[in-house]
Design a protein that fits this description.
alpha/beta, TIM Barrel, 8-stranded parallel beta barrel, 11 helices, 40% helix
């Protein structure tokens, strides 16, 4: 069982590598705005991911593909202004790095300069190796992402578990080692068999953060709105809901409407 070994005043990419070495689990959650990011940071989360999942939970899109680089920078800047302790990792959105390494570098530089984020995250393996190298050469930390890669949803055609077959599993292992050798400081593994995720975590010295990847990895990440129960349609096996805010907020708002309608709000004590 992993327990916190020390207090970290500020989390850096080196901190995460040290945490893996010390067998201390890493906590990671998404955030997309100032208010929520401030709460997440003060609660002690190690890494805040400004995910392109903002496309789904903030903008209502079906996939992560529509969100733009400008929109990611807006969300990331809002988060960075709130954070005192956590490492802030920002997703490079679809279309901002796949075309060529120079475009990838320009996108990463814009995120770092305009949002103040601490690192970027990119989906893919050997096909984006040159883009990763170019970004790293500019001094920008990169986190990888393998397994289910939502930006490639139309290629896969489904959100089911990835790398169940031997060939895809071997390719994922090779990609993980390649990402480490290229200089990535960590990798997110999404929705793959737990046994494979454990093997990957044991094969590299950089932290492996899982989402639907079992308990044999170095840390876990969830979408904040999912784990707080603000969403209720999405129910994958890996999701643990720590609250049911959808129900609580609906009841509270409904009560507010009733109080206004019957002139119960504001009462005498709530007026000047």
């Amino acid at each position: 069982m992993s327990i916190a070994k020390k207090e970290y005043k500020r989390i850096t990419v080196k901190t995460l590598v040290d945490m893996k070495s010390n067998k201390e689990k890493i906590s990671m959650l998404t955030a997309y705005d100032y208010t929520m990011a401030k709460i997440v940071d003060e609660a002690g989360v190690d890494v805040i991911l400004v995910g392109d999942s903002a496309s789904n939970v903030m903008a209502g899109h079906e996939t992560t593909l529509p969100i733009t680089l400008d929109q990611m920078i807006y969300h990331a800047a809002s988060v960075v202004r709130a954070v005192q302790r956590a490492l802030v990792v920002v997703d490079l959105p679809f279309g901002s790095y796949q075309s060529d390494p120079k475009e990838a570098l320009r996108s990463a530089i814009r995120i770092m300069k305009e949002s103040g984020g601490h690192a970027v995250k990119m989906e893919g393996g050997k096909e984006i190796k040159e883009s990763i190298k170019r970004i790293l050469n500019a001094g920008i930390p990169v986190m990888g992402h393998l397994g289910l890669t939502p930006q490639s949803i139309y290629k896969f055609g489904t959100y089911t578990v990835r790398a169940k077959e031997e060939q895809e599993a071997e390719q994922l292992k090779e990609d993980a080692i390649m990402l480490e050798k290229a200089g990535c400081f960590g990798i997110v593994l999404e929705k793959i068999p737990a046994k494979l995720a454990r093997e990957v975590a044991e094969s590299v010295s950089i932290p492996i953060i899982g989402i639907g990847a079992g308990d044999g990895v170095d840390g876990q990440v969830l979408v904040l709105h999912d784990m707080l129960g603000m969403t209720h349609e999405f129910n994958p096996r890996f999701l643990r809901r720590y609250m049911n805010l959808y129900e609580d907020m609906t009841l509270s708002i409904s009560q507010y409407v009733k109080d206004v309608k019957k002139s119960d709000f504001p009462n005498k004590e709530e007026q000047y």
